[in-house]
Amino acid sequence: MRTIDEYYPANGRVILHVDMNAFYCSVHEAEEPNKYRGKPTAVAGSVELRKGIIVTCSYAARRLGISTGMLVNQALKKCPNLIVIPPDFTAYRKYSNAFMKIAYEYTPCMEATSIDECYLDITGSKQFGTPQEIAAIIQERIYMELSLPCSVGIAPNKLLAKMASDMNKPNGLTVLRIRDVPKILWDKPCDQLFGIGGRTADKLKKLNIHTIGQLANSEEMLLTQTFGVLGVWMKQAANGLDQSPVLENREQSKSIGHTTTLPSDIYLKEDVHRVLLNLSDQVARRLRRKQMVAGAIQITIRTPDMKTITRTHTLSAPTENTEDIYAKACQLYNEHWSWDKSVRLLGVTLQQLMPKEDSAIQLDLFNYEQHPKKESLTKAMDLLRNKYGENAVLTAGMLGDDPSVLIKNHKIRGTSLQMDFRDKENENLS
C-alpha cells in the first residue's frame, strides 16, 4: 500500500486547476432550479435578437448545437425552446467568491485567473489527503454547498492542470502527468495546446508543424527565428514543461474594459469616433474610481461576420485621462481598420494597470499649469455622474453635431448607447 508521501513529488509541485462548468448558466440553475435545471439555457449580453450574442450556454443546450458566440436569433432557430437569460453579475460574483473560499481552505496558495477558474498549489497540503482526494473533496463541496458543477485538473504544473481540467467536462477529475503528454497530447493539432491560438497555429503550419508532437520535436532555432522567445515557450509547453508559479498575491485587476454590440453596423468615421469616445469615457471613469492609471490601451473590433481583432498600444507614460485614452483608441482604429468596412462591435480595454500613487503621470510641457484645473473638473464630473447617472454630464462629442441625423440614418441614440455599454462591462482578473 502506498504512503501519502508517494503521491507528492520530492522535488516538484502538485497543481490543481478548478474550472466551473458553464458557470453563468449554472449559477442561474442554482438560484432557480425549478425553472432552469436540465433545460437548454443560454446567457446573452442582450436578449434582443439583432445584437444578442450567446456568452455561455448550458450543456443541455450544447448537446442541441448551441455554442458560445452564436447570435441569439440563430440559436433560437436551431433550438426554439432555448431559454435566453440576461446576465446577473452580482450573482456571478457572489458564487465566484463562494467557490474560491472553499478552494482556499485547502491551500493559501491560490491564483484566481477569472471569475470562474483558479489554480491551487497543494504541494504542501498533504494533511488533507492525496491530490486526487483533495480534488474530489473540493469538487464535491462546491456541488453540495453551491449546487455548481466543476471540473478539476491535477498536474505537476499550471499548463497541464489547465489542459487536464478541459478534458472531461462536465464534472471531470483528470490527472495529467508529464510522462502522459506524448500519448495523450502529441497527436492533437497545435491550437489545442493552451496558449496557442488559431493565428499562431496557422504560422506553425507554414513551417510544416501541424501537431503538438511535431512542435515538441521541432528545432528550437526554427521556432525562435519565427516567433522569438515565444518559440522557446511553445517547444517547452509541447513537452509538458511549465515553470510559472501559482501567484498568491495578484492585483485585483489586470485590465479594465468595455465593449458594446451596436444596434446596427457602422462604418462612418464620426459614428465610430463617437462610440470610441463613449467607451473611453466609461473605462477612464472606472480606472479613476480604482485610483489607478493605465500603461497600455487595446481596442477590439468585431465584424458583421463575427471575426474579431484586437490591437494594443503601449503608452510612453501612464494615464487616467479620457482624452488620452480616446486619442489612442482612434489612432489604433485609424491605423488598423479601413473606413469602408463595417463593424458590429467595438471595445476599449486599459491594460498594464498600476496604482496612481506609484506612477509618474506625464504633464504636457505647455499646459502643465492647467492640469490641476482639469483634474478638479474631471473629479466634479465623476461625482455628478456617480450620483445622478451616466447622462448627468455628456460631452458634445458623445452626442454629435446633430443627433437627429444620427438617429435617422443609423438608429443610434446617445442614451441607448450609454445603456448598451453596460452589456459587456468586464474586469479581467487574469
From TrEMBL:
Compartmental location: Cytoplasm
Cellular component annotations (GO), alphabetically ordered: cytosol
Pfam assignment, any one: IMS
Enzyme Commission code: 2.7.7.7
Record domain UmuC: where: 15-197
Keyword vocabulary terms for this entry: Cytoplasm, DNA damage, DNA repair, DNA replication, DNA-binding, DNA-directed DNA polymerase, Magnesium, Metal-binding, Mutator protein, Nucleotidyltransferase, Transferase
Positions of Mg(2+) binding: D19, D116
Gene Ontology MF terms in the entry: damaged DNA binding; DNA-directed DNA polymerase activity; magnesium ion binding
Keyword DNA damage applies: yes
Location of the active site: E117
Cited function: Poorly processive, error-prone DNA polymerase involved in untargeted mutagenesis. Copies undamaged DNA at stalled replication forks, which arise in vivo from mismatched or misaligned primer ends. These misaligned primers can be extended by PolIV. Exhibits no 3'-5' exonuclease (proofreading) activity. May be involved in translesional synthesis, in conjunction with the beta clamp from PolIII.
Similarity annotation: Belongs to the DNA polymerase type-Y family.
Name this polypeptide is given: DNA polymerase IV
Originating organism: Paenibacillus antarcticus
Source species taxonomy: Bacteria, Bacillati, Bacillota, Bacilli, Bacillales
Gene from which the chain derives: dinB
